[in-house]
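agent> step 3/5: call structure_predict on target 'MFS family major facilitator transporter' (Limosilactobacillus panis DSM 6035).
agent> reason: downstream docking stage needs a structural representation; sequence fetched in step 2, passing through unchanged.
tool.input:
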Amino acid sequence: MGTSSDDQYPQGRHRTFYTLWLGAFITGAGYSMTMPFISLFINELGNFSHFQLNIFSGLAFGATFVSQAIVSPLWGNLADRKGRKLMCMRAAGVMACTIFCIGLAQNVWMIIALRFLQGAFSGYINNATALMAGETPRSHSGWVMTAMTTAGVAGNLVGPLLGGVLSGAFGYRIPFFITGILMFLNFLGTTFLTTEHFTPIKKEKMKPLGQIFQELDNPATIITMFFTTMVVISSSMSITPIISLYVKSLMHNQGNVALVAGIVAATPGLGTLVSASKVGHTMDKIGPKVVLRTGLAVAFVLFIPMTFTHSPWSLAFWRFLLGLANAALTPAIQTVLTLDIPTEAFGRIFSLNQSFQAAGAVLGSIIGSVISGLFDYPMVFAVTGLTLLVNFIVVMFVMQKRRES
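tool.output (status=ok):
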């Protein structure tokens, strides 16, 4: 089992950490290196109308999250019986095959089917995070959770730039081939360079998740963390699909819209990278719940000026500050989960959390598209800010109830 309850690092922990951090970085980079250009790739596979292209692109984008939300709990159950390393190997190996094969696709339905399959076997970053949670002393959990989150964020920043260069020079299939090869190397690294101190549990000896929830001091906290995960991811994904269109309207279609939109899209990730290490150390000193409450409050406040901005550069500035706040959100949630649940349930709890992440991604995309279609782009920021305010109030209420009990 993991050794997070004591204050000693397990043998080989640092090599495991660096390997998994690099693996999470490659996974984040591979995803963002291919996804921004998938609609352009689909457009090359047939003569589609504007409406058809949007529908097929949406299906290809959403297929992964739908299957991920459905299947994640099953993988979580297996992770708690067989270990998280095996789950990382499974995710990296299947992602290597599916992404490489997408590069070979001859029609749009092959892409959608492979993206659905990819989602059903995904989960590298979440399982790598759960593995490190079990290998890390609890006094350092905040920093490690932040570092693992930062790996995916850093990959998401680098991926679009690399994918844009490769697509422009060699065509839209090449990024899929390169990502497939990188994920295969990730599979090899995870297999041979990581160590997990885990004792397999027989299925009949594993506590049901319901029983574990009953034995928790305050299961409402864990459920609230799932809800918060969904809201945080939704708040990010509601903006993502419309950022380039919003920037285009702010610039009145003058100048290099693609470049400015890319900068505006990247600024939150840059802000998260800048503040992640500091936030992680702060979390270990004052606790993840204080950091989470502060992050939610600051994120809500930052959506107010974003709703009223009239310049892409001021939007970029506020989104950079939002990135500083975002560094406190997902790692704080994962740290609360790490500290409040028994090690034997890490796989199932983190996989359930991944299902809520996937649900948030789908929900956010729908909210952003519908609201911007019915009203205007600033209304998306207003509604997103309000959902974060509601989330903040719920978190405060639940934590107050816990203190009283």
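agent> step 4/5: record observation. Residues 1-6 have pLDDT under 50 and may be disordered.
agent> proceeding.
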